[in-house]
Amino acid sequence: MEKDQQTKEQEIYKFWEKEGLFSADPDSNKPPYSLLMPPPNLTGDLHLGHAMQHAILDAVTRTKRMQRFDVLLLPGVDHAGIQFEGTLTKLLEKEGLSKHKLGREKWLERAWQFKKDVYKSFHNTWTVMGISADWSREVFTFEPRIQKAVFEEFKTFWEQDLLYKGAYIVSWCPKCGTAIEDVEMEYEERRETLYFVRYQIEQSQAKSDFVNYQIQDGDEFITIATTRPETIFADTGIAIYKNHPKFSKFAGKNAINPLNGNVIPIFEDKRVDKEFGTGALKITPGHDPLDYEIGKDHALPILHVIDKTGRMTELAKDLAGLKIDEAEKEAAKKLERSGSLIKTEELIHSVPICERCKTTVEPLVSEEWFLKMEPLAKKALGRIDEINFYPTNYKKILTDWLEKIHDWCISRSQWWGHRIPVWYCSKCNPGHAVGKSKDMVVSFEEPGKNLPAGKQDCQTCGEKHWEQDEQVFDTWFSSGMWPITTLGWPEKTKEIKRYFPWDFELTSPEIKYLWIARMIMLSLRFKDNVPFKNMFFHGMLRPLTGAKFSKSLGNAVYPDELIKAWGTDATRMTLYTYSAPGRDSRTSKQLMDERAKNFRNFSNKLRNIAKFTIELKPEDSATEMSNHEDDKWILEELNKTIEQATKNIEKFELHLATEELYDFIWHKFADIYIEKSKSRREEAQPTLEYVLETSLKLLHPFMPFTTEELWQKTHPGKSIMAEAWPTT
Fold it and tell me: Which GO molecular function terms does the record list (predicted)?
């Protein structure tokens, strides 16, 4: 984009802001229409996905303003706990620093400074894209008023007995250093080794030194198959399916763990997969979700051989301290030396990885906070029909997930986030036991800090020895409240009365469970209403390989690059071609450049049409439109275009709306009508002007800068945004 054009766009944007054209008015007599911007994560530059979302939001916003609605497009940014902390950690490592070297207070100072630096790039991209949001209402999910709202959310759940804390199996990311939800994981196909390991059946005379014991004739064995021999150290049982043809005779007996000589029970369980391995399953309750459930039902002890950093514990003896992949190889060697490893096979295995850092996720037992989800999901299932989904199949996708929902682990072992507002008496409750009868308090700030002496003392010791829970909330615990906290909840504001539920929300499909489902449940819980009337899922833009755009792989395309090369409006129009509801698209920098170049040429075509119509206007032009057949034809085509484009926008099919407008303006108006009009220019002038002005209005939601620039040529000082939407 040429510098003078960039300067023009900046001036146009400042003009819009100065005129207050982005502002919503809760006291307006116009009907309200509200759109909620999905808050991008506070971790770096805005990418194509963000640009797609914001371009769609802005097109709907500008259309509704022209249709005479009081429109609120509310912007905001998410603090993105795990991702933000991971990004900052990498920066600190380059300085030889870490969060633990800095300490919590110093680290938080650096975090807030980093937040300010990142935010600048966000806001610049938003304004360059022409996003007409009400910036006076912008929200950050970690600002004080949101913190108070999140406290109110937690306090309410606590009072309703929907919260509990305890040691349970969770999905743990060793690199991020925290528990994550199952829906925050991806799965990667890997070629792994399947080890077939035999466990000796305990004889009447136990072996005192099993590790050095040499197998003898007559010994009996039960064989299991596993991809994780390093976890055998933590085995506490073996399960077989009922009536196993080979091993059912061992049910009720004991086996001897081949790596440590521990005696473990053998039992039947219907959850054992007959088709996997040998039909016998080693049970490691501390390191597998299914094993955890089976172990709980059979009262098996829970042992931990892998710690939260992804290394082996002292339970692994001489393998302690090794990384998991190293320990796997060493454990296999031990099994082979003892004669316990029968054979190996190759296995294509689906392995869970953290969606943020791509580290292999470990199932571990950790003490976390949980929210009971069944009552929230039940209400959501009863009200989900009140939302219009685009595409419609997403209603069933969300319904299926809600029907199978499990309790939500809401705590994270991080520092960046809303700290859990629970205080424990370090003297009477050093173990941080949780319960309404325990020595703990749910409080937004330290108990007794701003109260008279004697208030908020520990009920047991009568003193103040308060220490706060170290963990923070899962980011989605606050982001799930986004539809109501952005409008001032828990206060009863006129904004929440007027603009809630939101008329339009959109997102990419990948956070449908993390964010959309939770917004539905939490809005129904706290406002007894669905959060939005229309929920739009746009497709994902992917590289030609079908994977994901990645900065590290060097295949990422950034909106700033396209804007610099081809201009803002050309970039927006390019994005609309990929905006079909729910449809993923494969593209590349080259393909996007080609499309953007075409739309840059379309902008130039529009300027040439305006120059011909306005600047080259003949002096003795007619003042009224004629009944010439060419004039009638173009007006009929214009009416068809108005009707069809409006219908497409109402259905949020912006890709079809822009296609319709492009075809009409370039081919019907320019190529046919304008060419024909040259032979009867004076008579055709009123029709030329009417069709041009109407076309600019129809195009404005998609190409705001070009249309505003051309509108100002004949309407100086007046914005096209304030014009009424065309009707037939």
Answer: aminoacyl-tRNA deacylase activity; ATP binding; valine-tRNA ligase activity
